[in-house]
Write a structure and sequence with these properties.
Elements (H helix, E strand, L loop, with lengths): L1 E4 L4 H15 L8 E7 L1 H14 L5 E8 L5 H5 L2 E8 L7 E8 L6 H5 L9 E4 L19 E4 L7 H10 L5 E3 H4 L2 H13 L6 E7 L3 H14 L3 E6 L4 E8 L2 E6 L5 E5 L6 E4 L5 H9 L6 H9 L24 H15 L1
Parallel strand pairs: 2-3, 2-6, 3-5, 6-7, 7-8, 9-10
Antiparallel strand pairs: 1-4, 4-5, 9-11, 11-12, 12-13, 13-14
Pfam families: OpcA_G6PD_assem (PF10128), OpcA_G6PD_C (PF20171)
Organism: Streptomyces antimicrobicus
Protein name: Glucose-6-phosphate dehydrogenase assembly protein OpcA
Length: 341
């Protein structure tokens, strides 16, 4: 069921939700949280589709906040709220409210969202793109116990990581961190099987991929060993290599689906390590609403590594072999050419 409301308010939206539930006989007590999605028209469809898919595991009230850009001074002064209420098959396993804010109301979105939150239920705020630098300091972010961003969607992902670390608050998280959960689990299991002392590590993946940076920070933080970051053509993360005096542990994934785990003294084995879609990542994040201390530790460990003022700590580069000067080599080559003539 869909109900369109033009030039409305929060009270009328709540009444429409109650009436729609009565009409189709759907109670609200089965919903476990409120998911607030802050996005734009361009990304609203994909974000809502992912949220609806995730709602099969986490029935919730989904509130989509779309801030419409006003092009003229007159329209920027006129505050207007349009809404679309979806209940039943059109809203996954919960219910959905799509809010379109116009004019001055764009700067006061929290006043519209607050009356629509489920009572006595946790609130999660998700920015599919365009997340503020300070998630907890944002008026909408302040409503949530959990705040989800995605630095992969940022224009400069590495700078966004630094901003996340500087403004981190308990409850903040990042889908770029969620993407490496299978990698972290696989590497931890490999070290459980072979408890070696890792002397160095290498993380290889796409350039400007924050998941690669976060994995490198996590390894450096947990292992206390230098970690080198190298680039590849992808897709995403392609390999992690852990060096020790007993040999190398290598987890490589060239095709984005199937990885190979190589360990000293054991045959190579194939492991499923496919790239997951946004709905799976979101569902994983909604399973926990407490602060992620491991993410916090890895993120803050990387602050100095992202700082250009301390290049020695930046991603722990491997020592480079000395190169022969170019000038002395040019003369012998020239003399050999002359001798050949």
């Amino acid at each position: 069921m869909k109900i369109d409301l033009t030039e409305t308010n929060s009270s009328k939206i709540n009444s429409a939700l109650v009436q729609a539930r009565r009409d189709i006989g759907t109670p609200a007590i089965g919903m476990v949280l409120t998911l607030v999605i802050v996005t734009d028209e361009e990304n609203a469809y994909d974000a809502l589709k992912s949220a609806n898919d995730a709602s099969h595991e986490h029935p919730s009230r989904i509130i989509v906040v779309i801030k419409r850009v006003s092009r003229s001074p007159r329209s920027r002064r006129d505050a207007r709220l349009d809404a679309e209420v979806r209940v039943g098959a059109d809203a996954g396993t919960g219910e959905t409210v799509v809010l379109r804010l116009h004019g001055e109301l764009v700067d006061h979105a929290q006043s519209v969202v607050l009356p629509l939150l489920l009572p006595d239920a946790p609130v999660v705020v998700w920015w599919p793109e365009g997340a503020p630098a300070d998630l907890a300091g944002d008026p909408l972010g302040a409503l949530g116990q959990r705040r989800i961003a995605d630095t992969y969607a940022a224009e400069d992902p590495l700078a966004a990581l630094g901003a996340r670390a500087a403004a981190y608050a308990p409850g903040d998280t990042d889908l770029s961190w969620t993407r490496i959960t299978p990698w972290r689990s696989m590497l931890a299991a490999a070290l459980d099987q072979q408890p070696v002392k890792v002397t160095s590590a290498t993380v290889e993946g796409e350039e400007d991929n924050p998941s690669c940076e976060l994995l490198a920070m996590w390894l450096a933080d947990r292992l206390g060993a230098p970690v080198r970051r190298t680039t590849s053509t992808g897709p995403g993360l392609t390999s992690v290599r852990l060096e020790s005096k007993d040999g190398s542990i290598v987890l490589g994934r060239a095709d984005g689906a199937l990885a190979t785990l190589c360990m000293p003294g054991q045959p190579d084995r194939s492991v499923a390590l496919k790239r997951r879609d946004t709905a799976e990542l979101l569902a994983e994040e909604l399973r926990r609403l407490d602060p992620d201390n491991t993410y916090e530790s890895a993120l803050k460990f990387g602050v100095t590594r992202l700082s250009p003022s301390e290049p020695a700590q930046t991603q722990a580069p491997a020592p480079a072999e000395p190169e022969a000067p170019a000038a002395p080599e040019a003369k012998p080559r020239a003399s050999r050419k002359a001798a050949a003539k």
